[in-house]
Design goal:
Blueprint (H helix, E strand, L loop, with lengths): L1 E19 L4 E21 L2 H14 L5 E10 L2
Antiparallel strand pairs: 1-2, 1-3
């Protein structure tokens, strides 16, 4: 049986500029603003279906984000 441990889902948003109402135009930043947010910290998961449903939930909830990153470890239990 596979055991998935230390599951972490991270959302990354990148903002390259913003609209300036005083100048009435879009202004680029010198450096893009990158924000990261940890969406899920789970100790363990024993079922691939449970892992799939967790990842599907986060993918559907975060449609407009730039990147979703998933990290976990796999162990075999007998």
């Amino acid at each position: 049986m596979l055991k998935y441990e230390n599951i972490k889902v991270i959302r990354t948003d990148i903002k390259n500029g913003t609209y300036d109402n005083k100048k009435n135009k879009y202004v680029d930043f010198k450096k893009p603003k990158i924000t990261t947010k940890i969406l899920e910290l789970n100790d363990s998961c024993y079922d691939l279906g449970e892992l799939y449903s967790m990842l599907k939930h986060h993918a559907e909830q975060n449609v407009y984000c730039d990147e979703l990153k998933v990290e976990f470890k796999i162990n075999i239990e007998f």
